[in-house]
Amino acid sequence: MPNLSLIALDAPQTWPQTPLFASPIEDLYERQSTYVEVVAVAGAAPTMRRLEEQVFQYTYQNLRPRRDLMLQLRNLQQHYLTLDNDRAVVEFFEAEPGLPALLHEAVRPLTTAFGEGSLFHVRLQSSEDETLLKVAVRLPAGFVDAERALCTFDQEWWLNNCHRSGGALVFDYETQDAV
């Protein structure tokens, strides 16, 4: 039996017809599919039993964001006020395609934590090392316990989802009397 170095088989399978996301988040994604990849590791022994012990199976969900990022930005602008020009934000979304869906999902937890009528500002912040998207909840001057509201948002939603941003998204608050 030849020495197997790597065998990979991709077999696309159709995803179930039931959407994973409720509208309008499903509008951010194209139809999803699942891929199964079977890999045999180098040095497989000639017996079938040893070969089976060294075969691993990985299943991937292929989430493909829609390519119309300007449309995604327009949908987000129903909830967020962008403080940068639209083209700069769309270019950032090209580099970080998972952010529009994450921002859309964050609207409800932000509203729950900070209250109805809160304004959400989005701006790009750049340094020599990196660029990130900052979402600032704009609070009235008399807002009580802004820090507690942010902690509530963090504990109820953001800490469970921050890994999805790849470090490219930050949430904070600003009061209207802030400079």
Detailed description of the structure:
A four-stranded mixed beta sheet has the order 4-5-6-7. With 179 residues, the chain is of the alpha/beta class. It contains five helices and seven strands, in the order E-E-H-E-H-E-H-H-E-E-H-E.
Q: How much beta, percentage-wise? A: 25-35%
Q: Spatial order of the strands in the main sheet?
A: 4-5-6-7
Largest sheet: 4 strands, mixed
What is the terminal-to-terminal distance?
Answer: 72 Å
Order of helices and strands: EEHEHEHHEEHE
Let me know the average pLDDT: 75
Number of strands: 7
Report the structural category: alpha/beta
Alpha carbon gyration radius = 22 Å
Count the helices. How many?
A: 5
Uncertain stretches of 5 or more adjacent residues = 1-25, 31-38, 53-63
- Helical residues, percent: 25-40%
- What overall form do the CA principal axes indicate? globular
Oligomer: single chain
What characteristics describe this protein?
179 residues; alpha/beta; four-stranded mixed β-sheet; three-stranded antiparallel β-sheet; 5 helices; 31% helix
In brief, what are we looking at here?
Helices cover 31% and strands 30% of the residues. The protein is α/β, with parallel strands linked by helices. The chain has a four-stranded mixed sheet with strand order 4-5-6-7. The protein has a three-stranded antiparallel sheet with strand order 1-2-3.
Task: Present the secondary structure layout.
Blueprint: E1 6-14, E2 33-41, H1 48-53, E3 55-62, H2 69-76, E4 80-82, H3 86-95, H4 99-114, E5 119-126, E6 131-139, H5 146-161, E7 169-175
Parallel strand pairs: 4-5, 6-7
Antiparallel strand pairs: 1-2, 2-3, 5-6
Helix pairs in contact: 4-5
